[in-house]
Write a structure and sequence with these properties.
CATH architecture of the largest domain: 3-Layer(aba) Sandwich
Largest sheet: 8 strands, mixed
Helix content: 40-55%
Order of helices and strands: HHHEHEHEHHEHEHEEEHEE
Mean pLDDT: 86
CATH superfamily of the largest domain: Vaccinia Virus protein VP39
Shape: globular
Distance between the termini: 90 Å
Low-confidence stretches: none
Length: about 260
């Protein structure tokens, strides 16, 4: 090779080394441009108040493009056919109570003012029902409302955190638990873990507000994700599904295969 061709070869080598990164950079720039155009088109469609929120960095949920919302809240883990093969559908959550064992020792984790507690007492006739809530005003109202049941030893009211209250019970002492407490992902996970410790190996766990996003209080709920992860991790299944008009459905869980072939 002549001395004159050496610089040409060096330049060719440099070009070859940089061609691939430059192509990648070009693709990235084109993707960014397309993404930027989509964001701009989305921005143009917004009403004046939406544009103002975006410009001020105070964008609300409805100001975010669909892709941004999906990235914010990933899809819950998928259940398999084995997790729903015995599931029964009910017209509402009160009807779902027909699947709960009667004459049982149970807990309602998050009893609020005790409205659903009345249905639990009426339909399932528990031997012992622990009613738990962290709100002092609700607890006082529940104690007054169920004074006769408390005196008879059927109802016991607990004021405090649902997890701490259930953990204070002997492990495996509950036939079933019903969760209607903190509906965030972390809260639902904590409540499910506590209920799992407290119920018997063949026990039941019911949950309210099995919904991805609640349209009533405009909040993201984490019950769906928590339930799916619990079933996958502990090999539980959904046995009952109680419909709700605005999508805040109820589910009833049990260890997979428990009670199969029996009347319970």
């Amino acid at each position: 090779m002549s001395q004159a061709s050496e610089p040409v070869g060096m330049v060719r080598a440099v070009v070859l080394r940089t061609a691939s990164p430059l192509r990648k950079l070009g693709r990235s720039v084109r993707r960014s441009a397309r993404s930027g155009r989509r964001r701009w088109l989305f921005f143009r469609k917004q009403p004046a108040r939406g544009k103002l929120r975006i410009l001020l960095g105070l964008a609300a949920l409805e100001d975010r493009p669909m892709a941004a919302r999906n990235e914010l809240w990933p899809m819950p883990a998928a259940l398999g056919a084995q997790h729903v093969r015995r599931a029964r559908l009910f017209e509402h959550r009160v009807a779902l109570l027909e699947m709960f064992p009667t004459g049982a020792v149970a807990a309602e984790m998050g009893c609020h003012k005790g409205n659903f507690s009345a249905h639990i007492l009426d339909v399932t006739a528990p031997r012992k029902l622990h009613l738990i809530d962290y709100e002092a005003a609700f607890v006082a109202e529940v104690r007054e409302r169920y004074a006769k049941e408390i005196e008879a030893g059927v109802v016991e009211v607990h004021h405090g955190d649902t997890v701490a209250s259930v953990d204070a019970l002997p492990p495996g002492s509950l036939d079933w638990a019903y969760i209607d407490g903190d509906h965030s992902y972390r809260g639902a996970k904590r409540d499910l873990a506590a209920a799992h410790r407290a119920v018997k190996p063949d026990g039941w766990i019911g949950l309210n507000d099995y919904v991805f996003f609640n349209s009533e209080d405009m909040n993201k709920y984490g019950v769906v994700e928590a339930v799916h992860e619990f079933c996958l991790e502990h090999d539980w299944e959904i046995l009952g599904f109680g419909l709700a008009g605005r999508g805040q459905h109820d589910v009833l869980l049990r260890r997979r295969g428990a009670g199969e072939g029996s009347d319970d």
